[in-house]
Write a structure and sequence with these properties.
Structural class: alpha+beta
Distance between the termini: 51 Å
Oligomer: single chain
Largest sheet: 4 strands, antiparallel
Radius of gyration: 25 Å
Number of strands: 13
Number of helices: 20
């Protein structure tokens, strides 16, 4: 079923329903709709919210195209697709701010028939790729995401501004250090012996600048102790299938700022984060039994790998060392070059030469041959079937990016399953889903039984992962209380 609303010259709202099976405009009958288990394609955010309010399963045309194509569909992409298939420009007909009465166009079965052909092609492509389960998950999770993201986020503005000022001071200090070191250049323009140190400082500066850019504009100039950050959810899809918001993109907030978030109504704000999520998923994909067994014994995988490669006991691996080697491991899996790895390590304030990075990488693959075999396979095949059922065509993805895409996709599908499972019991267990970020979920709650809540949430995580990875029955989660009313 296709749905669109139209504002007439008389400022009244018309609703148009097009049945793709019968290829004609129809009168909406909710009883028939529910009986036949239709889902509705929408084109505007306002329409999507209206349909959700009526408890009608819906998905945006942009998200549908994104799932079918495995990439992000921007408005200009939709314009091109609709001009080719329906002879209309998408942005002119379905723009969020409707300025023209489209009654004549919308009353045409021929017009909707052309659009139905585009949508049918997308649905067929989704089925050919084994993505029909993901499509159903997306449709089920959309109401949860609107409830979560369209409600303003309270923030401790005083604390947030203090953090912002502190980071600005650190940036100013780094700038001064870089300028001072650069004075060591000779008159001939040759670089001084301090050049590696300068590169290290520049990497730290770039990381800090990126962090400051992700602070929302709403916090600038705020004088009240409590402020609100407004975000919007619009299901438009992405190439990684990750969930995101815009204006502001709350998933992109720096970790320091997330610590300033406050619950909307409840007494507590708690984050539940999957420990070592991507490495755990890779161990499951590659069937790397040694890593899986470590994970099931609740060992930190990054600490374990670092201790094995460096031939130290786990107690001798400090937090900073773990952070450095976690960066190298993830960059190795993402297919990054040695120079990129060095820059990433410098960005967290550490100097490590290329030879050390190469040696760590070599030992990592020697220690885990099943992972090496899987990584090499992903680089060479054009299509791979994932445990989720997706037939992932990767011939248009550069080989070194493929593994990252696979891990991000599986993570994104698991997150949707977990959100749906949590939402079904949220009222009964007195909690609200506050925020989700890739592999973590924030819960706000008035439930005093935190242990019972944790047990239920862990059960949802376990069920989602073990459905795809039979050898991983238990997930390790980290619980962080961000706010607790005194």
């Amino acid at each position: 079923m296709i749905y669109a609303s139209n504002r007439t010259h008389g400022n009244s709202i018309q609703e148009f329903w097009f049945n793709m099976q019968d290829n004609e405009l129809v009168q909406f009958d909710k009883a028939v709709f529910l009986k036949k288990q239709y889902f509705v394609i929408n084109f505007r955010n306002v329409d999507e919210k209206q349909l959700i309010a009526k408890e009608i399963h819906t998905i945006s045309a942009q998200t549908l195209m994104s799932i079918a194509g495995g990439c992000s569909y921007r408005i200009e992409d939709m314009d091109f697709l609709f001009m080719r298939g329906a002879k209309v420009r998408y942005s002119e007909i379905f723009g969020e701010e409707q300025k023209t009465d489209h009654s004549l166009v919308f009353h045409s079965n021929r017009f909707w028939g052309r659009i139905a052909c585009i949508i049918q092609e997308c649905i067929e492509l989704i089925y050919r790729q084994g993505l029909q389960c993901f499509l159903l998950l997306e449709i089920k999770v959309i109401p949860v995401l609107h409830t979560m993201f369209d409600t303003p986020y309270p923030v401790d503005s005083k604390r947030a501004i203090e953090i912002y000022k502190k980071l600005k001071q650190e940036l100013t200090l780094l700038q001064k250090q870089i300028s001072f070191k650069n004075l060591g250049k000779t008159a001939t323009g040759k670089k001084s012996s301090n050049d590696k140190e300068v590169q290290n400082l520049i990497a730290q500066r770039n990381k800090l600048e990126n962090k400051l850019m992700r602070f929302p504009k709403e916090l600038s100039g705020i004088r009240k102790e409590k402020a609100f950050i407004f975000s919007k959810f619009r299901s438009i899809g992405s190439d990684t299938f990750r969930i995101s918001t815009y204006s502001a993109n709350i998933q992109g907030f720096p970790k320091e700022l997330r610590q300033c978030l406050l619950p909307r109504q409840c007494k507590k704000l708690i984050e539940y984060d999957i420990v070592c999520s991507q490495l755990m998923l890779l161990a499951g994909l590659a069937e790397e039994d040694s890593l899986i067994q470590c994970y099931l014994r609740e060992m930190d995988l990054y600490t374990f790998i670092s201790s094995e490669i460096l031939e130290k006991s786990k107690d001798e691996i400090f937090a900073k060392e773990r952070g450095i080697y976690k960066t190298i491991i993830l960059q190795t899996l993402y297919g990054a070059g040695i120079d990129t790895m060095q820059a990433e390590v410098q960005g967290i304030g550490c100097r490590m030469n290329n030879q050390k990075i190469r040696e760590f990488k070599r030992r990592f693959y020697k220690l885990f041959p099943a992972i090496r075999k899987y990584v090499e396979r992903v680089k060479t095949v054009e299509e791979i079937t994932l445990p989720t059922g997706r037939n992932y065509c990767m011939k248009n993805i550069v080989p070194y990016s493929r593994l990252a895409r696979i891990l991000q996709y599986i993570e994104a599908e698991l997150l949707r399953k977990i959100l749906i499972a949590l939402s079904e019991k949220s009222v009964e267990m007195k909690f609200g889903i506050y925020l989700c970020i890739h592999d973590s979920i924030f819960i706000e709650t008035s439930n005093e039984d935190i242990a019972g809540l944790r047990e239920f949430i862990l059960k949802c995580f376990n069920k989602a992962v073990s459905e795809y990875f039979k050898n991983i029955k238990k997930i390790n989660i980290k619980e962080t209380i961000f706010y607790e009313e005194s």
